[in-house]
Every structure is written in C-alpha cells, then in structure tokens.
Design a protein that fits this description.
Blueprint (H helix, E strand, L loop, with lengths): L1 H15 L8 E2 L3 E2 H6 L5 E3 L2 E7 L13 E6 L9 E6 L5 E3 L4 E12 L8 E7 L2 E3 L3 E12 L5 E10 L1 E5 L1 E6 L5 E10 L5 E3 L2 E7 L5
Parallel strand pairs: 1-3
Antiparallel strand pairs: 2-5, 3-4, 4-8, 5-6, 6-17, 7-16, 8-15, 9-14, 9-17, 10-16, 11-12, 11-15, 12-13
C-alpha cells in the first residue's frame, strides 16, 4: 500500500513539473550544411530563432550547401554586415564566365523569441562586393519574405550593367507587428560578356533593440 502511495505521488509530481525543453543552441559560424542539420530546432541569433534551413536543388554550376559559409554577425565589420552573412567557400568564389549563368536558392524560417504581435521588425538585405568584368552582366540577390498574416514582401539588391551600370547595395522593410516569417533567398549571376563574381551577402531580421 505504501509503495502505491509513493508511485502515485511521483506521478503527480511529473504531471506538475513536465520535463524541461531542450535549450536552443546559439547560432555559430558554419557551413549551410551544418545549419540544415539543425532542422526544426534551429538556433538563436539576435533575439530570433532561425530554423528549417534548406537548399532546394544543386545550383546550375554545382554549388552545394558545403560551399556556403554562414556567419552570424551582430555589428557591421570590415567584411561582414549585421545579420546572417552568406559567403562562398569555393576558391573561385561565386563567379561565372562570359555567356554563363548561375542561380541558387536558400530557404529558412525566422521567429522572434518575443511574443508574436508585439513590437516592430526591420528586415534588411545587403549586397557584398560584386565585380562585373564587361559592359554587360549582372549580380542579383532577391529575398522573399512571407509573414503569416500578410502578402509576401520582396527585397532586392543588385549590380546590373547594361552599358551603364546601376547598383543597389541595401534594401529593407518594416514588419509590424512582429510575426514568424518564411525566407527565400535567390542568388542569380549573369556573366554577360566578361564574367561576374560576388563576395557574399547578408540578411538581417532585427527584432527589438539592436546593438549600437
């Protein structure tokens, strides 16, 4: 009888105190492959959880997730922007020759660790150094953000040369209220008549106060 009472008491204690949820890890520098391996659990960076990374298909020139370095950065630095920086690990960088093209896509989800519906989020896309070696060619990075309750939001940065060159280094949008977003990043290189290259880009999801 005493044993039954003890077991009943233990069961009640487990119901009252459920097991602790495994703490989400902090985002670290690693390949896109390592971020994909995090799965739905993801990692925390700058007040948000990043998870469900994917690389839908091998790029037109064979770039894989192993060839992409992801670096979370809180403050702008000499070669890094604030946010998640995506840079090439290939010795040739991300580049194509004249008359060739390249495209690859990165997907992931972002959710603020603050309660949904509170505050304002600022989402920013920054373009790293692009080089266009002839009078015609282009480097374009697009970010499509799909909040849960509004239409998708496009961001775009580029350097495009069509005899005359145009450059858009940064693009941003404000999301109010804060809500989880699905992110699709599309990188397109068009070699034109001289070849082009890109050193990287960064996507920032700023929720709440940011470092000064």
């Amino acid at each position: 009888m005493k044993t039954k009472i003890v077991l009943a008491a233990a069961s009640m204690l487990l119901l009252a105190c459920p097991p602790l949820v495994h703490a989400v890890t902090t985002c670290q520098t690693g390949t896109l492959t390592s971020y994909i391996a995090l799965g739905a659990e993801g990692c925390i960076f700058d007040g948000a959880i990043y998870n469900n990374f994917s690389f839908p298909a091998i790029s037109t020139n064979g770039i894989t997730p192993d060839d992409i370095l992801v670096t979370p950065n809180l403050l702008p630095a000499a070669n890094l922007f604030q946010g998640l920086n995506f840079t090439p690990l290939l010795t040739t960088g991300w580049s194509v020759g004249a008359g060739l093209s390249e495209e690859f896509v990165i997907n992931y989800d972002v959710a603020s660790i603050a309660p949904a519906g509170l505050g304002t989020g600022v989402l920013t896309l920054d373009l790293g150094a692009a080089q266009i070696s002839g009078p015609i060619g282009s480097v374009i990075v697009k970010e499509t953000i799909a909040p849960a309750t509004t239409a998708s939001i496009p961001l775009e940065v580029f350097e495009i040369c069509e005899e005359v060159c145009s450059l858009k280094q940064s693009d941003s949008v404000t999301v109010t209220p804060i809500q989880p977003v699905q992110t699709t990043l599309t990188v397109t290189l068009d070699g034109g008549d001289g070849g082009v290259s890109l050193s990287g880009f960064a996507a920032l999801d700023a929720f709440g106060p940011q470092p000064g």
